[in-house]
Amino acid sequence: MATSTALWSFALVVGLLTLTPGLDTAVILRTAALGRRTRAWGVVLGIQTGTLVWGALTSLGVTALLAASHLAYEILRWAGAAYLLWMAVRMIHDTFRGRGTTPEGVELGAAADTLSGGWRQGTLTNLLNPKVGVFYVAVLPQFIPADAPHLAAGLLLTSVHITFGVIWSTVLIVCATAMGSRLREPRSRRVLDRITGTVIGAFAVRLAVSD
After folding, report:
1. Is the separation of the CB atoms in 125 and 24 below 8 Å?
2. Which of 100, 157, 160, 184 has the greatest CB tally within 10 Å of its CB?
């Protein structure tokens, strides 16, 4: 497969994947809608950091161990499910304690609207999701030309995925910010956090019970 053909083919696959609503979309939308634009961009950078790590490890063949080792996959799967469940429970619990109604209590794990706090959240959310690693193990090698340097070609393809992710995240942040004034009202915040917490909790349960 020629490099240009591989790029366009992979771009089509990850483009459709990026547009599919999922956990990343929910976290970015909620953070931006609550007026935490700096933190929202931190989440985006964290998610893309995780994507870059998965792409690099796959290109080096490391993530093949994840697919081959049932124990390694199970450890990562349960760690990811526990982290997502903690996020969901804390988010919903805070709305009943009144903490979700103030700017100081709306963020997960950190109150401040900081880039670093969002980056940590986005990175953990991505790296603790073994399905991302399995996706890269199953898909990325198929698009690397046989005569191309494995690591360089893998990182090039991963950069395509990252580019799509940043573009789509920009659209999400702009849209969420535009309607954020109404969502930042105390009652709206509680509703938003309960909905988002339920969605994240559903992802946690799905990750825990899936093979």
Report:
1. yes
2. 157
Distance CA 124, CA 87 (A): 11
Helices (H), the chain: 3-19, 23-33, 37-59, 64-68, 70-97, 115-127, 130-139, 150-178, 180-183, 186-209
pLDDT in tens, 17-57: 888 878 888 889 888 888 888 999 999 999 999 999 999 98
Identify the three-state secondary structure at position 208.
helix
Q: 56 lies in which domain range?
A: 3-209
**pLDDT tens profile 90-144:** 878 877 775 544 433 344 444 468 899 999 999 998 888 877 877 888 788 888 8
How many domains does the chain divide into? Answer: 1
Which pair of tokens denotes residue 100? 């979700």
Cα 49 from Cα 183, distance rounded (Å): 29
* Distance (Å, whole) CA 116 – CA 35: 16
CA–CA dist 40, 70 (Å, integer): 34
Amino acid at 85: L
Angle at 39 between CA 15 and CA 86, to 5 degrees: 85
Nearest alpha carbon to residue 141 among 165, 128, 157:
157
**Six token digits for residue 108:** 């997960």
DSSP 8-class letter at 185: S
- Contact assessment for residue 156 and residue 6, using Cβ atoms and an 8 Å cutoff: no
**Residue 3 CA neighbour count, 13 Å, CB half:** 11
